[in-house]
Specification:
Mean pLDDT: 80
Low-confidence stretches: 482-497, 502-511, 547-610
Protein name: Eukaryotic translation initiation factor 2A
GO molecular function: mRNA binding; ribosome binding; translation initiation factor activity; tRNA binding
Helix content: 10-25%
InterPro entries: TIF2A, TIF_beta_prop-like, WD40/YVTN_repeat-like_dom_sf
Number of helices: 7
Distance between the termini: 88 Å
Oligomer: single chain
Largest sheet: 4 strands, antiparallel
Organism: Pseudoneurospora amorphoporcata
Number of strands: 36
Strand order of the largest sheet: 3-2-1-36
GO cellular component, one term: cytosolic small ribosomal subunit
Shape: elongated
Length: about 675
C-alpha cells in the first residue's frame, strides 16, 4: 500500500503533521512541540525530512514516521529552507551586531544528516551576512553541485560542499536579482533595472562561462521583475513591473511580460489582447506551455505555447490566479484576495473542458496535492483572523475534509517524487469523504437567490443596458479615460447619465439655425414637449380671441418695451402710498371698461376652459386615489407585521383601525371618476 498523502500546518500554539487520504489522522510517530513561539516549518524538496523552529532550536524529523533525526542549537531562527535533494539546510536569523558593532553572520548552512561523535556539537559549514529577508537563501543547481548568492554588482558561486571560498564570480554592474535554472541546464539569469536613461535588461549565462551571455533582452518600464524558469530550464518568463504607472491607468504600476529561450534562439514580448494589469503567470509542468491571467476585471485567462502563441482562452471572469496540477493535466483558475474565491477546474487533456466550480470562500492558500487528485485551501492569519481552517477538495468538486483552527499561519503539502505516485485516474473513482466534510455540508447555508442592484420603479421589468453589465455578462469592455475628460454629444462636458433599464434617448442631429425641425428626428421626450407647447399655444390664442387687447379681460396686461408691466413702471416713479391709490383707480376704471366692452365668448371658445377645469378636477381626484392606495398598502404591511408577532405602537394600531374608512373613501372617489 502506498503511503498516504501528508500535509503539515502551523498555528499560534502548535505544529502538526497530518496524514490525509485515505486515513485522515495525525501522524502517529510525530510529537508536537511544546506551546511557544513557533516561527516556521518546512519540508525538504525530496519529501524525506520535515524541519521546524522553536524557541529552543531547530528540529529535523523523518517525514514518513515523525521521529526526530537531529536538532540544531540555534534558538532565534525565523526562516528555514532545504536544498533540492535535502542534503543541506539553511537557517536565517534576524540581523544583529556583535560587541564591536559589526554585523553578525545570520545566514547559516548546515548538513542535514552527518556523523558526529557523542560529545561533538553540530557546526554550520558556511556563514554569511544577510540583512534582507527577501531572497535570503542560497540558490542551488538541480544536482546541488553549485550554489550562488547575490552581492553588490556580482553573483558569487560556491561549490556546495565548500562555502568558505568563492568558486567563481559573475560580474554585472547594477544587478538586483538573479535566478538559477532548474533541470540539467546550468544557466543563470540576471536582471539589471533601468538606470540613468538606459533600458533594463535580462541576461542569461551558462555556468561557469561568464564572458558573454547566451541570451538577453532589453526593455523599458521595469523597476523590478519576476524571473520564472520552466521545469526543464529551457525557457524563461520575465514579468516586469514599474512602481508607478505614468499613464495614470493603475495605482499599482504597469506590467509587461517577455519570453526568452535559454539558448538565445527566441526572445519576444508576449502580446496580450486585453488592456489591464497581468495578475498571474504560471508554467505548466510539461515546460511547453504557460498560462496568463490579465486585463481589467473581468479578467481574461489564456494558455500560450513555448513560442508565445495563444492556443486557448478561457471565459472571462473575476479571476486573478492560475495554477497547473503537478501532472500537468488540470489547471485551476481562481479569484482570491478581494474576489469571491471561486475556483474553476479545467481538464487540459479533454479539450479544456470545465470540470467544476468550487465555492471556496475566502482562502489565502491554494495548492494541488502531489498526485493531482486534491486541492487544498486554507484561510490563514494574519490576512484573516476569523474562519481560519483547512479544507480538502476532490478535483471533481466535492469536499473531502474540513478542520477549523485558531490563528492558522501556514499549511504545506509533503512533496512526493513523481516516480512514487500511483498511476490512477484522478477523477475516478471518487473517494469517500471524511465525516468532517459531511458535517461541514450540513452547516453550509443554501445560497439565496441574489436580489440584484436597486432599480427605480420606472426601470423595473426591462432589460439592463449594456453599459451597466460586466464584460463577461455581455456588457461593454472596460475603458480607461487616461486623464482625458469625457465629452458629451454636444462637445461640452460629460454625457448625461442614463437611468438603469430606461431606453436610450435618441440624439437629435444638429440642424441649421432657423431651419424647420422634422418630427421624425426628434426624440420621444422632445416630441412630447413639443405637443405640450402646441397645446398651450392654442389655449392662449383662444383666450386672446375672447377679449380685445389692452381692454382688460382674462389675459394679463402686455409688457412694455423694457420688459416691465405698466403697473411696475408706474411704481418706479411714485411713492408706495401714491402707487396704491393710483393702482386702485386704474383697476376700478378697467373693471368698468370690462363690464361695458367685454364680448361674450362663444361655445367653441369656452370649450377649452371647461376641458381644462375638468382635467384639473380629475387630476385632483387621481392624486387623492393614489394617496389612499398608499395608505392601504401601509396598513396591510402593519397587519402582516402584527400577525407575525411583532409588537406595534399605539399609533400604528390606530392606523390599522382606520382601514375600513379609508377603503370606503377610496371606493367613493373611484365611483366619482367613472
Amino acid at each position: 500500500m502506498a503511503s498516504p498523502l501528508q500535509f503539515a500546518y502551523r498555528t499560534q500554539k502548535a505544529i502538526g503533521v497530518f496524514d490525509a487520504d485515505p486515513v485522515y489522522e495525525a501522524l502517529p510517530g510525530f510529537t508536537k512541540p511544546a506551546e511557544g513561539n513557533l516561527r516556521c516549518c518546512v519540508y525538504s524538496g525530496c519529501g524525506r525530512y520535515f524541519a521546524y523552529a522553536t524557541n529552543e532550536g531547530v528540529v529535523i524529523a523523518d517525514a514518513s514516521v515523525g521521529h526526530v533525526l537531529t536538532s540544531l542549537p540555534i534558538p532565534a531562527v525565523y526562516d528555514l529552507s532545504f536544498s533540492p535533494h535535502g542534503t543541506y539546510l539553511s537557517t536565517w536569523e534576524r540581523p544583529a551586531k556583535d560587541e564591536n558593532g559589526d554585523a553578525t553572520k545570520n545566514l547559516k548552512i548546515w548538513r542535514t544528516i552527518e556523523e558526529l561523535a557523542d560529545d561533538a556539537e553540530k557546526q554550520p559549514i558556511g556563514k554569511f551576512v544577510q540583512k534582507s529577508a527577501n531572497g535570503w537563501n542560497l540558490q542551488y543547481t538541480e544536482d546541488e553541485r553549485f550554489c550562488a548568492r547575490i552581492v553588490t554588482n556580482e553573483v558569487q558561486f560556491y561549490q556546495s560542499d565548500d562555502l568558505g571560498t568563492v568558486w567563481n564570480k559573475l560580474r554585472v554592474e547594477g544587478v538586483s536579482d538573479f535566478a538559477l535554472a532548474p533541470g540539467k541546464n546550468q544557466n543563470v539569469a540576471v536582471f539589471v533595472p533601468e538606470r540613468k536613461g538606459h533600458p533594463a535588461s535580462v541576461k542569461v549565462f551558462n555556468v561557469p562561462q561568464f564572458t558573454s551571455p547566451i541570451s538577453q533582452k532589453t526593455f523599458f518600464k521595469a523597476d523590478k521583475v519576476q524571473l520564472k524558469w520552466n521545469q526543464l530550464g529551457t525557457a524563461l518568463i520575465v514579468l516586469a513591473q514599474t512602481e508607478v504607472d505614468k499613464s495614470n491607468k493603475s495605482y499599482y504600476g504597469e506590467t509587461n511580460m517577455y519570453l526568452l529561450s535559454a539558448n538565445g534562439s527566441f526572445d519576444a514580448r508576449v502580446t496580450l489582447d486585453k488592456e489591464g494589469p497581468i495578475h498571474d503567470v504560471s508554467w505548466s509542468p510539461n515546460s511547453k506551455e504557460f498560462g496568463v491571467v490579465y486585463g481589467y476585471m473581468p479578467a481574461k485567462t489564456t494558455i500560450f505555447n513555448h513560442r508565445a502563441v495563444a492556443t486557448h482562452s478561457f471565459p472571462l471572469g473575476p479571476r486573478n490566479t492560475i495554477i497547473f496540477s503537478p501532472t500537468g493535466r488540470f489547471a485551476l483558475v481562481a479569484g482570491f484576495g478581494n474576489l469571491a474565491g471561486q475556483i474553476d477546474v479545467y481538464d487540459l487533456e479533454k479539450d479544456y473542458r470545465k470540470i467544476t466550480t468550487i465555492e471556496s470562500g475566502n482562502p489565502s492558500v491554494c495548492t494541488w496535492s502531489p498526485d493531482s487528485r486534491y486541492i487544498l485551501t486554507a484561510t490563514t492569519s494574519p490576512r484573516l483572523r476569523v474562519d481560519n481552517g483547512i479544507k480538502l477538495w476532490h478535483v471533481g468538486g466535492g469536499i473531502m475534509y474540513n478542520e477549523d483552527m485558531v490563528e492558522l499561519y501556514n499549511v504545506i503539502w509533503r512533496p512526493v517524487p513523481a516516480a512514487s505516485l500511483p498511476n490512477v485516474d484522478p477523477l475516478h473513482p471518487i473517494p469517500t469523504p471524511h465525516p468532517s466534510a459531511l458535517a461541514y455540508l450540513g452547516t453550509v447555508k443554501t445560497p439565496s437567490k441574489p436580489v440584484g442592484a436597486y432599480r427605480p420603479p420606472g426601470a423595473r421589468g426591462s432589460s439592463t443596458p449594456l453599459h451597466f453589465k460586466r464584460e463577461d455578462e455581455g456588457g461593454v469592455a472596460h475603458s480607461v479615460s487616461n486623464g482625458v475628460p469625457q465629452v458629451g454629444p454636444n462637445g461640452f462636458g460629460r454625457p448625461r447619465r442614463q437611468i438603469p433599464g430606461a431606453e436610450f434617448a435618441e440624439q437629435a442631429r444638429p440642424s441649421v439655425p432657423g431651419a424647420v425641425v422634422d418630427d421624425e428626428n426628434l426624440s420621444k421626450t422632445a416630441l412630447k414637449n413639443k405637443k405640450k407647447r402646441n397645446k398651450k399655444a392654442k389655449e392662449g390664442q383662444a383666450g386672446e380671441g375672447a377679449t380685445t387687447p389692452n381692454e382688460g379681460g382674462l389675459a394679463p396686461p402686455r409688457e412694455s418695451a423694457d420688459g416691465r408691466s405698466p403697473d411696475r413702471n408706474h411704481q418706479r416713479h411714485h411713492s408706495r402710498s401714491q402707487s396704491r391709490s393710483n393702482n386702485l383707480a386704474v383697476r376700478t376704471q378697467n373693471n368698468h371698461r370690462s363690464r361695458s366692452n367685454v364680448r361674450q365668448p362663444t361655445a367653441q371658445q369656452a370649450a377649452p376652459v371647461i376641458d381644462a377645469a375638468t382635467a384639473a378636477a380629475q387630476s385632483a381626484n387621481a392624486k387623492k386615489i393614489r394617496s389612499l392606495q398608499k395608505k392601504i398598502r401601509a396598513i396591510e404591511d402593519l397587519e402582516m407585521r402584527h400577525a407575525g408577532g411583532e409588537k406595534l405602537e399605539d399609533t400604528q394600531l390606530k392606523k390599522i383601525a382606520t382601514k375600513s374608512s379609508v377603503i370606503k373613501e377610496l371606493e367613493a372617489l373611484e365611483k366619482e371618476g367613472h
